[in-house]
From TrEMBL:
Location of the protein in the cell: Secreted
This protein's UniProt keywords: Hydrolase, Lipid degradation, Lipid metabolism, Secreted, Signal
Primary localisation category: secreted
Family affiliation: Belongs to the 'GDSL' lipolytic enzyme family.
GO biological process, one term: lipid catabolic process
Protein known as: GDSL esterase/lipase
Domain of life: Eukaryota
GO cellular component: extracellular region
Record-level Gene Ontology MF annotations: hydrolase activity, acting on ester bonds
Organism: Sesamum alatum
Pfam families membership: Lipase_GDSL
Length: 332
């Protein structure tokens, strides 16, 4: 499995970036993770960790930026994702140093592919078709770019440009040997504590953020079928994490959750110089973490990640995974 994207799928790359403000290498992050705070934006495992377990991968996928990620370490895959990054190169600039999706793809092409060739020899060219290429990006292009007012275009035009850019990035990966793609939807970020604290609403979610996410997700789902003729032999799966999380938020109790609106950890407020997203270093943290939807101001708890990964892997509902699930994709 090769992984590209932002904080929802980052498993520690930003730890190794100087001057990055999007770092979670401290408690309470990782409070429920076997290795402690590892740079995952959650209390425990993220979606990628859980998918990897369901696919029976022998180890966690190592982060590209970790100096020890080389040699035999890379034969089951590498994670390139970077918290705060986006599909567009200028997304996340206010988070300091982040790795854009274009740069992540360059890291795969220029560093990992030659090294994979050394490890696997002749087999390396054909073996890429057996890897899953997971791409989870786009949310920050709205929250850390478009909605900061840097763009004087309509949200429709911005979304169309974003989809075209991503489509070209997927074709680049295809050109490098990728054949199996898992595309993650943008989450309902308008329902996150970060959004609702800034813009209190009567029904609990900030509609402008959710409308943009739904627009992008509709384009992304269409892309799954539209791009295939241009990428012969490829298969793409769209994982609708938006719907999966939205269903939990609408009916939390029936799904085993009790708190769908607050951060589990103490978040550094904007008035304290924070962004309203990340946990306060050494701050308080809720005891019943498996009952919370959000761990910090934006990122889900491990409990929610388990639901998303499980549905991605084995759901038969086309509204959740389209056109089929990741288990089927892995067996093709």
């Amino acid at each position: 499995m090769f992984v590209f994207g932002s904080s929802l799928v980052d498993n520690g790359n930003n730890n190794f970036l100087p001057n990055s403000l999007a770092k979670v290498d401290y408690f309470p992050y990782g409070i429920d993770f076997p290795l402690g705070p590892s740079g995952r934006f959650s209390n425990g495992k993220n979606v990628i960790d859980i998918l990897g377990q369901k696919l029976n991968l022998p180890t966690y996928i190592p982060p590209f930026n970790d100096p020890s990620t080389k040699g035999r370490m890379i034969v089951n895959g590498v994670n390139y994702a970077s918290g705060g990054s986006g599909i567009l190169d200028n997304t996340g600039a206010l988070a300091g140093n982040v790795i854009s999706l274009n740069q992540q793809i360059r890291n795969f092409e220029e560093v990992t592919l030659p090294e994979l060739g050394l490890q696997l020899g002749e087999r390396s060219t054909g073996i890429l078709s057996q890897f899953l290429f997971v791409v989870g990006s786009g949310g920050n292009d709205y929250s850390l770019n478009y909605f900061l007012g840097n763009n004087n275009v309509s949200v429709e035009a911005f979304t169309a440009n974003l989809t075209t850019t991503l489509s070209n990035q997927l074709k680049r990966l295809y050109g490098l040997g990728a054949r199996k793609f898992v595309l993650m939807a943008i989450n309902p970020n308008g329902c996150s504590p970060m959004a609702t604290v800034r813009v209190p609403t009567s029904n609990g979610c900030v509609q402008s953020l959710n409308t943009a996410a739904q627009m992008f997700n509709a384009h992304l789902k269409d892309l799954v079928l539209a791009i295939r003729p241009e990428m012969p032999g490829s298969n793409l799966v769209f994982v609708n994490s938006y719907k999966i999380i939205r269903d939990i938020i609408r009916f939390p109790i029936s799904r085993g959750f009790r708190n769908a609106s607050n951060s589990c950890c103490e978040v550094t407020k904007i008035s304290e110089g924070g962004t309203g997203i990340l946990c306060k270093r050494g701050g308080t943290v809720c005891a019943n973490r498996s009952e919370y939807v959000y761990f910090d101001g934006l990122h889900p708890t491990e409990a929610v990640n388990v639901v998303i990964a499980t549905k991605a892997f084995s759901s038969y509902l086309k509204a959740e995974v389209f056109p089929f699930n990741v288990k089927h994709l892995s067996e093709i």
